[in-house]
Amino acid sequence: GPRWVDASDAPALAAMQRQVPVSVGASYDLIERDMLKGPWVMGERYTVCDPYLFTLAQWLEQDGVDPARVELMGFIADGAGHLAAYNRIDIALDSFPYCGTTTTAEALWMGVPVVTLAGAAHHARVGVSMLTRIGLPELIAPDKEAYLTIAADLAHDRPRLAALRTGLRARLAASSLCDASGLTREFETALRRLHAAATSDV
To answer: What is the pTM of this model?
Structure first.
């Protein structure tokens, strides 16, 4: 599983370079192939440490990506400011193999389409669940190449991207993800089924 390192320990972070989630590599691929135009915004929600951001910039440069094309953002303590930062993003690339949850919900609520890569376990399918629930299965990629293609195609289709961004919050609000009563009933039904199965032979 992932290892956590003190963000102030730049050498330790540098030593973890090869353990960076493959989603960062996919982001680099998109930039390197000029499949998406910058500036890119790469945020780290839990860190404001300059050495960490400096290390990310080094990784970009080592992979042949001009760091000037990427805006590295630190932690934004103010909630309203944090959400406002999504207004600077056109498309969010979901992380993998561990998908976003709160970040994905925030992005969708703020009108930012999310492209996700479908994995096999729960932690790799949260984005799949959310996008399916709001009726956007076309943003779910079965493999890395499809992930790159979906993101690039969406970035180059400005009318489609604009339409998605305009209607995303309403789409999310109207979906079952925001139906607390409905989700409660589904959960209660599942519990009753589990109870019935557990007590059927008693």
So the answer is: 0.70
Q: Looking at beta carbons, which pairs linking 101-105 to residues 24 or more positions away fall under 8 Å?
A: 101/126, 103/45, 104/130, 105/130, 105/172, 105/177
Check whether 174 has a pLDDT greater than 90.
Answer: yes
Rounded distance between C-alpha atoms, residue 42 and residue 59, angstroms: 13
Distance spanning both ends of the chain, measured CA to CA: 40
What count of other Cβ atoms lies within 10 Å of the Cβ of residue 82? 16
What would you report as the CA-atom Rg of the chain, rounded to the nearest whole angstrom? 19
Cα dihedral sign for 92, 97, 100, 104? positive
For 101, residues 6+ apart whose C-beta sits below 8 A from its C-beta are: 126
CB 67 within 8 A of CB 57: yes
Decide: helix, strand or coil at residue 157: coil
Burial class of 33 by CB neighbour count within 10 A (0 to 12, 13 to 18, 19+): exposed
* Cβ proximity of 94 and 23 under 8 Å: yes
pLDDT tens for residues 11-69? Answer: 443 443 333 334 444 454 554 444 444 444 444 433 444 566 777 777 778 877 777 77
Tell me the three state secondary structure of residue 113.
coil
Cis amide linkage into residue 137, ω under 30° from 0: no
Residue 125 pLDDT > 70, yes or no? yes
